[in-house]
Amino acid sequence: MPVGTSGGLCAGRVVVVTGAGRGLGRAHALAFAAEGAEVVVNDLGVGLDGTAAGADSPAARVVAEIEAAGGSAVAHGGDIATTEGAASLVRTALDTYGRLDTLVNNAGFLRDRMLVNLDEDDWDAVMRVHLKGHFLPLKHAAAWWRAEAKAGRTVAARVINTSSGAGLLGSVGQGNYSAAKAGILGLTSVAAAEMGRYGVQVNAIAPAARTRMTEETFAATMAAPEEGAFDAMAPENVSPLVVWLGSDASDGVTGRVFEVEAGKVTVMEGWRRGPSADKGARWSPAEVGETALKLLAEAEVPGAVYGAG
Ligand SMILES: NC(=O)c1ccc[n+]([C@@H]2O[C@H](COP(=O)([O-])OP(=O)(O)OC[C@H]3O[C@@H](n4cnc5c(N)ncnc54)[C@H](O)[C@@H]3O)[C@@H](O)[C@H]2O)c1
Q1: How far is the CA of 83 from the centre of ligand 1 (A)?
Q2: Domain Ketoreductase: where (predicted)?
Q3: Domain count along the chain
């Protein structure tokens, strides 16, 4: 679908993508625009560890790319992990386009260290950008959707949160990031349960793609292919699912988590109760230990933590 035509899966929708100046967010923003959406491209333009990276505005570059392809987009350069940044992000969508339909929470950065070496600042910075950086835009968008629903207008809003394999299984050297990304899964479940009544669907993805975040650490997995072969780790492979989740077409899908990379989409089935025992009275520690070992012998072994062993 050429950008700027009136058709497309997201024609008439206004989409906000956080951290859309590069990597996965940029790919999502371009893909939404190609399906007819008007896009608010947020990016603070920080370095890989979240520290300031000069006057560069990657959001403005992506807006220029969308406009050059005939689409419509506006840049927002605020910090989504602050109330002012999140509120002004939603306001930018409303002031520019008069509405907001889809929020893609994607911005983030890394401060990888083994837990024993992890400074409190590196813990706080990563929890803040991912977890608070998901909560605040969600809260401010939801306030508008709730007001719309209360005013009697039909809301078909979509939120796509960005978790990670690190949040699903854990990742050695990424204790802060794994905790934040696991927190996003809990936030997704609660937001889906609370906001369904206002017409808001909330889902999460755990992507994998070649970006500045992964191209060095996972150089072999992320390497670009030979000319002409399928570029499995291109960020653009993740965006079609995000665009569908962010469109009217995903009606009825909420509270779900998808792993997505290359040509593969997997529905994650999450925590579910395994073997259990009920004595109907208080156990002694020795007795409950013996029972726990029996239950563990019957239970499925959890997936391996990334980088363990
Ligand atoms: N690349 C992967 O394989 C992978 C795997 C799992 C999860 N993720 C997640 O996907 C998301 C995108 O990552 P990416 O790989 O494209 O990384 P990236 O570094 O290429 O892009 C992230 C963008 O977020 C922006 N950003 C950071 N803090 C911000 C803030 N406070 N406000 C606004 N913008 C801010 C950065 O400037 C950057 O442009 C992240 O949440 C990441 O944790 C990526």
Answers
A1: 19
A2: 13-208
A3: 1
